[in-house]
Design a protein that fits this description.
With 141 residues, this protein is mainly α. The protein has helices at residues 5-29, 38-59, 70-77, 111-134. It has a single domain, classed as Nucleotidyltransferases  domain 2 (Four Helix Bundle (Hemerythrin (Met), subunit A), Up-down Bundle).
């Protein structure tokens, strides 16, 4: 990734801020009764996890593939982190990256799946924020 050292904190913080927005949107989506859009809740949870992993990579100035695949991103992170195994369950989120966005895939997301997706996104957020903090990066709450 071609960003100067002076910009890496700012860029990583931007990725984290976008991730936080996705998580807030997912959490809000659960309140939209009676027709909660569970597929969108799960999609935004996946986006949160993806963007947090990319924030970590940006902070380390590591090029990452153009992918929504959580497994692939964890593989890139694992050379620079000791926490990737803790997040293997987050690989479940990959299914929500594409198929729930377009008609024709017939991917129905149930309430339990949406709630699980948010739980996994929160786990990624917590672990990655802790990792970035331990490296000296300051992220707003």
């Amino acid at each position: 990734m071609k960003i100067p050292d002076s910009e890496k904190d700012k860029k990583a913080a931007q990725w984290a801020a976008f991730a936080d927005e996705d998580l807030r949107y997912a959490e809000h989506g659960l309140t939209l009764e009676p027709e909660t859009p569970y597929r969108l809740v799960a999609y935004h949870a996946q986006q949160c996890a993806e963007k947090y992993l990319k924030a970590f990579l940006v902070y380390h100035k590591i090029d990452f593939p153009y992918t929504h695949n959580i497994s692939a991103l964890l593989e890139v992170c694992e050379n620079h982190a000791d926490w990737t195994e803790k997040l293997r369950d987050a690989e479940e989120l990959t299914q929500f990256a594409i198929t729930v966005r377009y008609p024709g895939e017939d991917e129905v997301v149930e309430k339990g799946e949406a709630i699980r997706a948010i739980e996994l996104a929160r786990q990624v957020k917590t672990v990655v924020r802790k990792a970035l903090s331990s490296l000296g990066m300051k992220l707003p709450e």
